[in-house]
Amino acid sequence: MPQATKKKPNKNNNLLRWVIFTFLLLFFCAMMTSLLAPSGAIEEVPLSDVIARANDENGNIAKITVEGSNLKITLRGEDYYTQVSRKDTSGTLYEQGLINQCEGLAGDELTNCQSKYPTIEYVEASNFWDYALDIAIIAIPVIIIFLFFNSMMRQAQSMNNQSMGFGKAKAKLYGPDKKKVTFQDVAGNESAKQDLAEIVDFLKEPKKYEKLGAKIPRGVLLAGEPGTGKTLMARAVAGEASVPFFSISGSEFAEMFVGVGASRVRDLFTKAKKNAPSIIFIDEIDAVAHKRDARGGAGREDEQTLNQILVEMDGFDNDSGVIVIAATNRVDMLDKALLRPGRFDRHVNVTLPERKDRLEILNVHFKNKPVEKDVNLEALAAKTAGSSGADLANIANEAAITAAREGHKEITNGDLTEAFERVAIGPERKSKAMNDHERKLTAYHEAGHAIVGHVLPDSDPVHKVTIIPRGRTGGVTWFLPPEDRSYKSIYELKDILARAMGGRIAEKLIFGEDAVTTGAASDLQHVAELSKEMIVEEGMGKATRDLVFPEGSTGYYTIATSKPYSEKTAELIDQEIKGLSNEAAARAEAVLKANKPVLDKLAEALLKHETLEEKELEPILKDAKLPVTAKLR
Ligand code: ADP
Ligand code: ZN
Predict the structure, then answer these.
(1) Eight-class DSSP state of 74
(2) What's the 412 CA to ligand 1 centre distance in angstroms?
(3) How far, in Å, CA of 40 to CA of 32, rounded?
């Protein structure tokens, strides 16, 4: 375990409880002792004084009762009582000078002596029950009060937490002894790793920075889509620096009762500080730190939790040694207070992997899996554009499962393809019985997608067409995704809309206008979503070109009542969206009408072979041509 650089007093209820308890105890001891003292008067006198007076004929002491280390002294004349604690027990009282002056005397001499000097009496010291009774009289009320007080404190706390124990952070601690994740386990994302390497250095050598008066960052915000490896990277930072890793997810706070979130945050930070240097990882921080105005009347609980996080971070010393890493896929949603200097002022973007990064990620995940020599991870990397690291890890795992199920000793290219398609759409359903009509319909539907996609100039190349049902689809047309372009043109998007319409249009052309089936539902949904996005978010409308219609951060259609624009504008938006899908349908129809022979040929080939790959598609599709009516430019 790493050494804690600094321990701060644990300023929680425990301390307070003990202080109050101690006070109560002292108070009770004082009270009880005075109650137990016969005369009600207590006087502490040094033993030497007592001895001196005992040996003085005018010392005025009538009797000394020695009971263990206590001396009870009764004074003459007055009913005076005092007690001496013999702290120094080295040597007997006799050796220390307390001598019984009247020893050996008798009769009048004894009486005379006793009138001047004290009688010294030794009593059995360990009268256990006397002591026990004394102690019990003092202790019992104290214990009762302590217990009562304790339960009150707990009740107060649990009222705060609704239930006892809820306040404890369920943070997971990954100590250095747990399987260490390092930057080697994180493929790609070089720039993010570089930014984080600095954090590792802060954790390893804080002195280096302190000496130069540099402020060590307290918070790092990792921004990126789900599955891009944010958690993995945060763990790698902890692994590289060999410090403990505490993690909690923002969404866990969401389900908590009032006050619990804040108390968990407190607990988590206390733990992390105790184990400093350390890392606190807060996943999905947007769950608690959304803009205060983003959701109508943001939950008070979230706000309390967020405030507690801010309070804890503001309370860090420069050398607290705790670095908070938070992850989000919605930076735009975050409360600005979180991003201020001294809080999460370092931002690291984690992006979806590019092709070469995807290959690296695949290599990481296939490293310990047996693969056939000719397995082509490059090809898999090529067709997984847009996939996250988590998707790729998932494909790797599915490939191993598929290979095992098929009884392969090593993972084959076929296993890879099956895993890829299974992850993308769902498992193949060879058993799903389709009647001849359904098969024919599916064949024309997929052929429609393929031909429209093939012919339109800004569409991606067709990669594979199949009428084997998979997941919830009857068939699939795979397009090779474009390689990692940051921007898409309006032409590309319009071609995507048209090829998506291609399926339904082909069905209509062959089976008649009213023979429409539910098979195109997901295509139509895709068209609806994409065209909406183009108008509302991208400013791609005809009459609304360059105008966007943001609806706050909750999305366009969720709060229909709070549109920040007029009814007229809403109508215009609807028209524009409809315009895009109508145009797409018209273009698809134009293409398919112009290529009816190709459509028939492709559908027939599909019915015969079920699946056609690029090289089998090529000879059929090469005859298809683009009609002028489908041209955009
Ligand atoms: P996030 O926190 O961004 O949602 P995770 O870190 O939880 O993503 O990623 C989930 C899994 O995906 C990881 O455990 C890992 O197996 C895999 N993964 C994601 N990104 C990478 C990467 N860059 N290199 C290797 N594996 C990755
Ligand atoms: Zn379709």
Answers:
(1) E
(2) 24
(3) 11
The CA distances from residue 594 to 34, 330, 443, 449, 458, in Å, are 112, 45, 18, 14, 19
- What pLDDT, on the 0 to 100 scale, is given for residue 454? 96
When pLDDT is averaged across residues 473-481 and rounded to a whole number, the result is 87
Give distance in angstroms: CA of 153 to centre of ligand 2.
64
Element (H, E) at 84: strand 81-85
Q: Which residues, 6 or more positions from 27, have their beta carbon under 8 angstroms from its beta carbon?
A: none
Q: What is the pLDDT of residues 54-101, one digit of tens each?
A: 877 777 888 887 776 667 777 777 666 666 666 555 567 776 777 777
Of all atoms in ligand 1, which is nearest to the CA of residue 353? 23
Looking at the CA of 499, name the nearest ligand: 2
| Phi, psi angle pair for 90, to nearest 5° | -75, 120
> What is the value of pTM for the model shown?
0.65
- What does the longest C-alpha to C-alpha distance in the chain come to? 149
User: N- to C-terminal Cα distance for the chain?
Assistant: 67
Which sequence positions are flagged as catalytic?
A: 446
Residues less than 5 Å from ion ligand 2, measured at CB: 503, 523
**Phi, psi dihedral angles at 179 (to 5 degrees):** -55, 120
* Minimum CA distance residue for ligand 1 atom 15: 390
Please work out whether the CB of residue 186 comes within 6 Å of at least one atom of ligand 1. yes
CA distance 267 to 305: 12
SS3 content of the chain, % helix, strand, coil (to 5): 50, 10, 35
Closest to 630 (Cα-Cα) out of 459, 483, 484, 455:
455
Q: Return the residue whose CA atom lies nearest to atom 17 of ligand 1.
A: 390
Whether the Cβ atoms of residue 493 and residue 540 lie closer than 8 Å to each other: yes
Summarised one tens digit per residue, pLDDT across range 338-375 is 888 888 988 999 988 988 999 999 999 999 999 999 99
Distance from C-alpha of 260 to C-alpha of 301, rounded to nearest angstrom: 8
122-164 confidence digits (pLDDT tens): 776 555 666 677 777 777 777 787 777 776 666 555 444 443 4
Counting ligands in written order, which one lies closest to the CA of residue 501?
Answer: 2
pLDDT at site 562? 56
Are the CB atoms for 485 and 501 separated by under 8 Å? no
